[in-house]
């Protein structure tokens, strides 16, 4: 996750930060972008998505509204950028042991759900209503996470520990849905023994299977 940055005086007051957006996107100034995103993160935690405004973010970051709007077209784009920046996307290392790798996969799912709790979770649901934000979140966060998860499951298949016809995407969705429903909807703790039980079921072959050719026709 991105580290916090120390705010500095807005270069835009002399015209530099308020220059027109470069072709194909906002002006490239990672330090200034980080200051705005850090300010948005602070205000999101304090106020929630509904009360967050571009004006408040600009004031907290010490920049002009024009500076923010040159980088993000609206609030959902700004918060979407924040969610993408703060999302963790980690590969699952080849540990030579399917059980260990499935434990790591499940632990990452739990971590990702935990990271989206409270105001951040409500912000996610608000921002994914924006097709552009949803596309970026799918492409830059969900896509890579799913790619790494698939690779770990396929290693288990290659070792003979998981069925060859396992529906990898549905298994990941089932695990993700179980974790989110238990922790977010029921507000109940997911015990380590319960996580282990989910892994045990998978290794016992209790997994969704790909449909046979023509089965869904």
From TrEMBL:
Annotated Gene3D superfamilies: Homeodomain-like (1.10.10.60), Tetracycline Repressor, domain 2 (1.10.357.10)
DNA-binding region extent: 53-72
Residue numbers spanned by region Disordered: 1-32
Positions of the HTH tetR-type domain: 30-90
Keyword Endoplasmic reticulum part of the UniProt annotation: no
Keywords: DNA-binding, Transcription, Transcription regulation
PROSITE patterns: HTH_TETR_2
Xref: PANTHER family: HTH-TYPE TRANSCRIPTIONAL REGULATOR RUTR, TETR-FAMILY TRANSCRIPTIONAL REGULATOR
Protein's UniProt name: TetR/AcrR family transcriptional regulator
Top-level taxonomy: Bacteria, Bacillati, Actinomycetota, Actinomycetes, Kitasatosporales
């Amino acid at each position: 996750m991105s580290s916090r940055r120390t705010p500095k005086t807005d270069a835009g007051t002399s015209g530099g930060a308020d220059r027109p957006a470069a072709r194909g996107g906002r002006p490239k100034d990672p330090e200034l972008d980080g200051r705005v995103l850090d300010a948005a993160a602070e205000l999101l935690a304090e106020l929630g998505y509904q009360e967050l405004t571009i004006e408040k973010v600009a004031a907290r970051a010490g920049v002009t509204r024009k500076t923010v709007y040159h980088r993000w077209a609206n609030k959902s784009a700004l918060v979407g950028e924040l969610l993408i920046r703060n999302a963790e996307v980690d590969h699952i290392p080849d540990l030579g042991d399917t059980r260990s790798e499935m434990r790591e996969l499940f632990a990452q799912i739990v971590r990702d759900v935990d990271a989206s709790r409270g105001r951040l979770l409500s912000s996610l649901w608000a921002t994914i209503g924006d097709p552009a934000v949803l596309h970026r979140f799918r492409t830059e966060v969900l896509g890579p996470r799913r790619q790494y998860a698939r690779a770990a499951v396929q290693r288990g298949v290659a070792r003979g520990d998981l069925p060859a016809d396992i529906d990898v995407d549905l298994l990941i969705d089932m695990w993700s849905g179980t974790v989110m429903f238990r922790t977010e909807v029921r507000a109940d703790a997911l015990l380590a023994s319960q996580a282990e039980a989910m892994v045990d079921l998978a290794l016992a072959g209790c997994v969704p299977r790909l449909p046979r050719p023509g089965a869904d026709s």
